[in-house]
Description:
- The strands form 2 sheets. Strands 8, 9, 10, 11, 12, 13, 14, 15, 16 and 17 form a 10-stranded mixed beta sheet that branches.
- Mean pLDDT is 89; it is low at 1-8 and 240-244.
- This protein has helices spanning 45-51, 60-75, 92-95, 98-108, 236-243; strands at 11-15, 18-22, 28-30, 35-38, 79-83, 112-116, 130-132, 135-137, 140-142, 154-156, 161-167, 170-179, 184-185, 196-197, 211-215, 220-224, 228-229.
- The chain has one domain (11-243): Purple Acid Phosphatase, chain A, domain 2, CATH 3.60.21.
- The chain is of the alpha/beta class.
- The chain is globular.
- Strand 8 (135-137) and strand 9 (140-142) form a beta hairpin.
Amino acid sequence: MVVELQTPxxxxxxxxxxxxxxxxxxxxxxxxxxxxxxxDLHLExxxxxxxxxxxxxxxxxxxxxxxxxxxxxxxRPRTVYSLGDAFHDVEAEGRMDPEDARLLRQLLRRADxxxxxxxxxxxxxxxxxxxxxxxxxxxxxxxxxxTEGSADGEIAGHLHPCAKVRASGGSMRRRCFASxxxxxxxxxxxxxxxxxxxxxxxxxxxxxxxxxxxxxGKGVYPFSRPKLLPDAPRPPRAAGLAAAR
Length: 245
């Protein structure tokens, strides 16, 4: 199958009757609540890896925050919800470049912020905003780690969903939103965040009829489960590195 990239730059889907807009940057906008939802920013992942001797360009935080700034300017949310792992580790704030820290403070003044604690950043950030383990808004429940089994109304991050589909000349693998209309797992928003195929056993029986909404350069494209491809098996060492993301 050849992928036809002829859809709008955003796509809309419902989660328990709530209309959400899937944005190409990897966040979701909830018009009824004027809320912007983003998961797994993983700020300062580059400097964390540098401390371990893995040299990456130290610009992931700036790239991530600038992308977030564009979305805030475009959609003017009342509230920004960060669904966990905003910071790559508990020392990440202290490693931020002063320019990046200023940009973050500017973003915090443009909306109310709610920080949901993640496994990488279980301690409350020192920046402004409310910190919680979950946020309940109407029929939806915002958390970091998805609940095993069914969980109607849950919106989560943590798993960094990606999907692989056939494309002209082969295949393509992209970050994606994963949903069955009853729950949603957001893609990782961070510039250096990795991804896990939605067909991986980690997703288990989380979804009914799954749709993966792939992020493309010009749009967000839905693919049903029968059109999704598994990843090729990786050598044990590569698989271990991916699991350690």
